[in-house]
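Notebook, student rotation project (T.W.).
Task set for the rotation: take a protein with a known small-molecule partner, predict the structure of the complex, and write up what can be learned from the model alone. Partner molecule chosen: adenosine-5'-triphosphate. Sequence and SMILES entered below by T.W., checked by me.
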Amino acid sequence: MPLEHVTATRYVTPLREGGSLPGIVEADDLGTYVVKFRGAGQGLKVLVAEVVVGELARAVGIRTPRLVTLEVPPDIARYEADEEVQDLLTASVGLNLGVDFLPGSFGYDGSRAVSADDATPIVWLDALTANVDRTWNNPNLLLWHRTPYVIDHGAALYFHHAWPTKGVDAARFAGQRYDASAHVLLDVAGDVAGAHERLAPMLTDRLLTDVVALVPDEWLEQAPGLAEPADVRGAYVEHLRARLNRPDAWLPGRTS
Ligand SMILES: Nc1ncnc2c1ncn2[C@@H]1O[C@H](COP(=O)(O)OP(=O)(O)OP(=O)(O)O)[C@@H](O)[C@H]1O
Ligand SMILES: [Mg+2]
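Predicted structure of the complex:
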């Protein structure tokens, strides 16, 4: 099943705290979404990382807002008064990422407790996907109805930024250690190696393939040796599989 698809009906407001100027929009399913725009400076790869890591999180039972593909029609940009936003909307006409808006959520700052049961899988997932964006400076963790929801995975899977220049090297990514020292949940997390034993078996080749299949073709950019979307998808699965097989290299606490 692909991601659900919706069309934006109204641009509500920018989220100025987000580096990529994400915005809140209403859509034709009467939902409200945070939009990660295809026309933001970071490019399409961050949208791919959002989908892959967000859906891996969901697959292992970590809460994260529902993701949709979100069409920005040209007239939405036309009626926007703010010039910066208008430029972004104009550059983003087409398929964007929609993240279900969690009204009333609260950005994690340590003042409200997160349990070790919730924290440990999150640290594990971030180590697996090399997500450097869950630090005290940038927690990307929302509390909603008192439970933690992970958001903003655009910085994970950074290996794909090196594809065009350095070629695809799953082994290198697999062996890259993960520095969890600034992770916002490090103090709360328990046995991350135990989480690996429990969660890694859920990420079968089939599941990895299904998750990567959720990324729309048009977000998958060509790279040397990766001419077709199917080749790019295969490379994501290969990198993730290789890293899953080398926990000794990246599990926090395992490396020195
Ligand atoms: N689904 C959501 N529900 C409610 N608020 C959200 C949601 N997604 C994001 N936000 C709010 O918007 C902020 C920016 O979102 P996000 O971190 O995804 O954007 P970003 O541009 O990648 O940010 P940065 O690069 O600055 O971390 C979040 O810190 C959070 O306060
Ligand atoms: Mg963020």
